[in-house]
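Your task:
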Amino acid sequence: MSEYRSTCDLGELAQRVKLARSVAVVSHSRPDGDAAGSILAVSRALRLLGTRVDAIFTGAVDPNILALAEAGEVRLDTAGPIDPLVELAIVVDTGSQSQLEPLDVWLRGMGDRVLGIDHHARGEDIARHRVVDTSAASTTQIVTRLMDLLGVDVRSAGPGCRRTIAEALFVGLATDTGWFRYQSADAAVFALASRLLDAGVDRIALYQALEENGRVPRLAATARALASITHHAGGRAILMSLSPADFAATEATSDDVGGVVNIPLEIGSVGLSVLLTETKPGVTKASFRSKSRPDGTPWLNVSDFASKFGGGGHALAAGARFACAIDEARTRVADAIARDEGLLL
């Protein structure tokens, strides 16, 4: 990947956004809470300003994430081509070309009319004009500053929309900090959370909708994932996997196993947890999780670890994709853990 840093300030970005009459807002495939929250917050704000907005979720979308949007507020990438009259593309919460694959050709055609807002440390030159703030706990934290520059009240909702900008911002902030459990949840995060709660966000309802709304197959799939555990690096690393046979037997989908990778971190001696899933033959996805040591540093920077396989993310949460079956992927990850065993001491 090329050097990934800000190429402009947020004020410049806000001015370009204000002048656009038609904008598309996109993020990485399989949007998580931060990606979806950023898309929804930006699109609701711009609609309030009279901008024509095409808000797009790409890839397989978790039903709980999709439910954050009201009917007709966003569309999936399978719903047809993007309006050719779109003047700007705003890419939020990613700078990775592989994560934007469904939109790659279109984004390349947009040239310097692509704006980026991100908080990840790695990315590519997709958005010529971008703000990258790795100190932000979530992309919605940066988007909130954009809202202020645009003069938009976060308590507002988009035209014909009952759900507020504040709610979308809170979703990204809460989910990317592990509901305020991660080291990234600093004083600024809690200050913003307080502001959003004052704006009317119902944090309990959001938590229940996103984290306590699973399907019954999740239990069987979780049991199989835990049964697959192998210990590495003297027990400091845990490797789990769910094969196509596991998904078929449990009738689970990849959406049903979100968060399962975090379970081994409940053990005090475990500093790295990996979950491999193969739902599509020959394509294995890896989720990497670590946790903070008492001094606040990660047991293992899993963003760096994921980069060994072409992936990335954050210091405590990252992912990668393998173009191979799950057994081969498992061997490759286990070998990499063995090579990095000293980092887990």
Observations:
- Residues 275 and 321 are 12 Å apart (CA to CA).
- Residues 217-344 form a domain with the Diaminopimelate Epimerase; Chain A, domain 1 fold (CATH 3.10.310.30).
- The radius of gyration is 20 Å.
